[in-house]
Structure formats: structure tokens, C-alpha cells
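Trying the structure run again after the queue cleared.
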Amino acid sequence: MYFYLFNHCKIVKGTTQCALYDLDKNRYFAVPHSFSEFVEIYNGYEVDELFKIYDSEDHEALSEYLQFLKDMHLAIFCQNPNESFFAELKSEYRSPSRIHNALIEYHPSFDLKHLVSLLEKEGCRHVFFYSFESISVKNIIRILSSLNGSGIVSVQIMMRYTSLPLVFVYSHLAKKYSRFLKLILHHAPFDGGFLKYGQFEFHIECLKKKIKDNHTLYVISPQNFNANIQLYTESQNYNTFFHKKLIIDASGNIKSDLISSETYGNIHNINTLENILSNSELKKYWYVRKDDIQDCKDCECRYMCVDCRTPVNIDEVWHLPACPFNQYQ
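Done. C-alpha cells:
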């Protein structure tokens, strides 16, 4: 019997360990370097032959490796050798959109129809509104209604927690508006989720975390890792957070990142994003891959981590300091 690792399973090496990405099932496993070396060398070998190659004292570990691949459905076991199982997964990332998603600090003064129109013209598919304060139910309905009939397929909203009864009002909105993918409520008195559904574990998520500014907007955590084909292929050539993302602050200013004071236009004063998107300075972080960042390039999580922190170029070397997964700290 022969074994072949599925081509949608990728092993990414880190300094202290490796990660096995299952890009088909959106999951990953932490594995030791010895496992990575075993798969690299012996993928496609006959199982009985492996037990002849390995010393007897290593047979237990070998059996564990093979059983793990089988139990987790990470490899196919077949009676005859088949070179077709070595076919590489196409890693080319393609998207016709000039802007794929938008990160917007919500303000009630926004002309949402105008904003949606600007985004739609550039092929934007996903929108994330966030606020450090609460957004009224009326304004949430305004946001969701503005997307009706548009090409935007999903919207997520993050805001400050208000009260538990209102959470159930939000659950009604999540059922009514199909584009309403997720609501995240920070400053909540508890951590918990409601309405288990679809792509995300929960439609509505309450977080005790106090998100009070752009520096606390995102937490690097295994819970935020996504091992999927789109993110993996995008990460080979682009930054998985900044690439094709439009960032808009509460004043309507368009920015290259969350913390910079430099702006490239304002949504209240324009009818098209075309000229703004032609500015290379706006897109300066789009092409800074995790493989180009000193603090990320040897991390096994680098192809599934969407990190909103701004890369810093020091002496022609990109850095992302203070990462909990940084192997050098």
C-alpha cells in the first residue's frame, strides 16, 4: 500500500515547528520538523517498504505518523503507485477586482449609498465596518439596507456591546439580511457566540476585549488564522491584510494603513476611486509578503495570518515587532 499527501495539504516550516495546512477543510495542525522531513522524503512510498527503511526503534513513531495522516484524512492510501497524486496545487492568485475588500471606521454622517457605489465600481466584494462606540439599531439597518441590490456579497460589523436584549434584535437582522455575515461586540461582559451558522462559527460574537483604538483592533491569535486556498495563494505574492484593501477612517479619509496620518483622498469629495488607486504610495504595503518580513518569514503561521499591523522598513529590511508568534523574541 502506498500513501500520498493530498495536494491541498501544505507543510509550512517554522523555526521551532511546522504547520500542516489543510486548505480544503480550512484547518491546520502543528507538527514537528521530523514529521515534515518524513513527508518530504517519503511521500508516495510503499508503507511496507518504509518499515524496512526505518530502524525498529522508530517503527512506533512511523506508525503514529501514518495513522495521523489516515485518521485526519490528510493523505490517500492506495494499492498501486499513482504519479498523478503528485500534481501540484495551482498557487496562482487571481482576482478581477481592483479593491477586494474595505475596512471602514463607521460614522453616522456617511452617505452610504455613495460609499457603496464607489466600492462597487472597483469590484469590492466584502466590507468590514467598525466602531469603538455602539452603533444604533437604526444605523445598522441603514448600513445593511444600503447594500441591497449591490455587488457586495458580505458585510461584517464590529462595535461596542450595548445590552443582552439587543443581541437578540441583532440576531433577527442577521436572519433578515443575507449579506450580514457577522456582528462582533467588544467590551462585552462575557465571551460568547450566538447563531451558529455558515462560514463563521457564530453570526454574532461577544468579546470581553476592550477595543478602544486602531492599535487594539486586531489580536494575533490562532482563532484568527485561516488556512484556506485563497489566503494561501494570495500570501505567496502579496500581503494578506493590505492587498486590495481600501482603508477609510471615520472622517472619510482614504489611507494606506490604520495608524498613518497620511491620506490619499476623501470619499465625501470624489465620484470615483480610479485616480486614488493609481497612486503607488497608497498601495505601498500591498506587496510586502510575510516572506519579506524579518519577524514573519520563519513563522509556520505566515500563510494563514491576516495581520493588520503596519510593516516598518528599517535599513531595507521589513519588520513587524511585538508579535506573540515571533520566534526571535
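The chain has two domains: 2-83, 101-217+245-285. Worth checking whether this holds up in the mutant runs.
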